[in-house]
Amino acid sequence: MARPVAVVVAAFLAGLLASEIAAEIAQNSADFYNLGRRRLPQQSLCLELIEPSGYSCSEHKIQTKDGYLLGLQRVSSRSGDLRTQLGPPVLLQHGLFMAGDAWFLNSPEESMGFVLADQGFDVWVGNVRGTRWSHGHVSLSEDDKNFWDWSWQELAEYDLAKMIHHIYSITNSKVFIVGHSQGTIMSLAALTQPDVAEMVEAAALFCPISYLEHITAKFVLRMVNMHLDQMILAMGIHELNFRSDWGVNLLDSICDGHVDCNDLLTSITGKNCCFNNSRVDFYLNYEPHPTSTKNLHHLFQMIRKGTFSKYDYGILKNLKLYGQLKPPSFDLGLIPKSLPLLMAYGGNDDLADVEDFHHTLKELQSTPELVYLENYGHIDFIVSINAKEDLHDRVIGFFRSWGKSSSS
C-alpha cells in the first residue's frame, strides 16, 4: 500500500470519536503524507488560535487530585473584556484525540467557542491530560508509562470535575457544559456525582455515547474485532500518538490486506454532510492530540460488552479495586431530574448510534430537549459550516432559557 494512504489512516483513526480532521480521502491523500512532520503549535492556545481572531483570552493552569496539570482558557467576545465579562460561564469539553482548539477551528461565525463568546457567554475551554494544551504532571514525566495510566473514567472523575469546580469557584456561578463525543461520556459520568451536578446549570451534549454497543463504523469494528487495543498494550505502548512513526507503520499494516482504507471518512464517522474540505491543511496543524492506550481499550471494552461501566481490570483486580467481579456501571439515573439537558444527534453518525442513544434516554430521569439533524455525521457537530443555524442557535436559546438562576 502507498505510504500516503497509511498516513491518511493515521489521521482518521485519530478522529475515531469525532476528530475534526476528516476530508475526502481519495482527493486529499497527498495532504496527509507528512502528518507526523507537520508544524505543531508551540505557543499557548490563546496566542496560537484565539487572540489572532480578535478575542480576549487568558490562560489558566489547574491541578487534579491525582497530580495532572490541566490548561484552561477563558475567552470573551471581540467587543468584550475578560475583567468585565458578565455572561454565565460555559465549559467546552472536547472529544477523543482532540483538545480545546476543536471549538475554534472554523471562522468566528462558524465555531462554537467564538459564537458563544460573541453572544456574551463567559467561555471556558477544557483540555484533558495528555493533550498539548495541558501541562503534564507534578511528578511524572510524559515518558513514564504511569503518566498514561488512565482512561475516560479519570477524565470524568478528576479532570472534568476539577474544571467545573475551578470555574464555579472563580465565577460564583453554576456552569453550563457543552460536550462532544468523548466529552459527553465524561459529562454523563461526572454528573452522576452529586457534588459535581450541583455546580452545573445545564448541559448540551453533541453525539452522546454513553453506550457503544450498536456502532456501525466499519473501520472501528474491524479494529475492535482484531483486538488492536490489546495488541498495542501488549507491545508496551501506553501513549497513542498518531503523529509518531510507529503509529503510521501500525496503521499501514492494518490497511495492508485487512481493511479497505480508501473511504476512511465514511467508514469511521458515517457520512458527514457539511465538512469544509478546503480547511483540512489548517486542521492538521492542530489535530490529532495524544491520548492513552488504556483510554482506547476502555472504549473498546464498552463496544464489546455493551456497558457504560468503569474500566475492567479483570476479576482479581476488579475485586481489589471495586469489591466486585465486574466493574460497576455509571448509573445515569443518579443525574438529577432537575438538571436540564439538551442532546443533539445525527442520522448519519456511525459512532453515536441512534439505538444506543435511546438506551441512554431510557436510563435518565429527565426528558432532555432533543435536536435531531438527519444529514449530520459525527464530526459535523464540531466543524459543520452550517452549525450556527443548525445547532449553535438552538444551544444558545436553551442555555438562556435556564440561565436566570445561574448565580449562586
From TrEMBL:
<keyword id="KW-0732">Signal</keyword>
<dbReference type="GO" id="GO:0006629">
    <property type="term" value="P:lipid metabolic process"/>
</dbReference>
<feature type="active site" description="Charge relay system">
    <location>
        <position position="349"/>
    </location>
</feature>
<feature type="domain" description="Partial AB-hydrolase lipase">
    <location>
        <begin position="48"/>
        <end position="106"/>
    </location>
</feature>
<dbReference type="GO" id="GO:0016042">
    <property type="term" value="P:lipid catabolic process"/>
</dbReference>
<feature type="active site" description="Charge relay system">
    <location>
        <position position="378"/>
    </location>
</feature>
<dbReference type="GO" id="GO:0009739">
    <property type="term" value="P:response to gibberellin"/>
</dbReference>
<dbReference type="GO" id="GO:2000033">
    <property type="term" value="P:regulation of seed dormancy process"/>
</dbReference>
<keyword id="KW-0378">Hydrolase</keyword>
<dbReference type="InterPro" id="IPR025483">
    <property type="entry name" value="Lipase_euk"/>
</dbReference>
<keyword id="KW-0325">Glycoprotein</keyword>
<protein>
    <recommendedName>
        <fullName>Lipase</fullName>
    </recommendedName>
</protein>
<keyword id="KW-0443">Lipid metabolism</keyword>
<feature type="active site" description="Nucleophile">
    <location>
        <position position="181"/>
    </location>
</feature>
<dbReference type="InterPro" id="IPR029058">
    <property type="entry name" value="AB_hydrolase_fold"/>
</dbReference>
<dbReference type="GO" id="GO:0016298">
    <property type="term" value="F:lipase activity"/>
</dbReference>
<dbReference type="GO" id="GO:0004806">
    <property type="term" value="F:triacylglycerol lipase activity"/>
</dbReference>
<dbReference type="Pfam" id="PF04083">
    <property type="entry name" value="Abhydro_lipase"/>
</dbReference>
<dbReference type="InterPro" id="IPR006693">
    <property type="entry name" value="AB_hydrolase_lipase"/>
</dbReference>
<comment type="similarity">
    <text>Belongs to the AB hydrolase superfamily. Lipase family.</text>
</comment>
<keyword id="KW-0442">Lipid degradation</keyword>
<feature type="signal peptide">
    <location>
        <begin position="1"/>
        <end position="18"/>
    </location>
</feature>
<dbReference type="GO" id="GO:0010029">
    <property type="term" value="P:regulation of seed germination"/>
</dbReference>
